[in-house]
Description:
Elements: H1 10-21, H2 26-32, H3 41-45, H4 52-62, H5 69-83, H6 91-111, H7 117-130, H8 134-149, H9 155-171, H10 188-195
Helix pairs in contact: 4-6, 5-6, 7-8, 7-9, 8-9
Amino acid sequence: FNDWWQYAPDEAIAKYMADFQSIPEMRAFVDSGHFAPQLDLDELGAMPDGSLGKGYHDFLVDNGLEKNLATNYKQLHDFMKVAGNLDRMPADLQYAIIRGFQQHDIMHVITGYEPTPDGEIALQAFCLAQLRFPYFAMWMSVVATRMALLDPDTIVPIMDNISQGWQYGRTVKNIQLDRWEDRFAEPLAAIRRECGIDPNGMMPLAA
């Protein structure tokens, strides 16, 4: 993703930017420049059962995930920026990828997708359906190329996961631009209902 910008066609960058800027809430999202402080797992773990924050805590702990993945990525991003590798990546998209890393595991919790190969592919398709961002599109390109050239046995499950995630993302409220850390104390089931997601996660509510 980061290396691509040195070679990306100007027309492709312009099209991504045009689509990015067409989302009404995007300007406020970018202008806020919000980057949440590092997580305190003890504070999250003390939140009420059934809350988004407690669900996030359990998701990180149960799956042995890095709580400060986004902070680590931001350091890498800043290093590449100083080195000039990201000169052609528009500033709005630079912010979106950093914030996206910070939100990624929260997306898992809200949608109900597990951090498994199937769940990751489906979540990336879900995110692409809500935000036409090159990082998500590259995920689809890479997994489709791999299944076609290296492992045809995975064609059916991969396409099922992509299809399900894509339709899911198109059906429910866009959840990519919210400051979910501000709502950690709220019930996860209520947040899911607000977004049009079944309280148990995984599937969109019927229209």
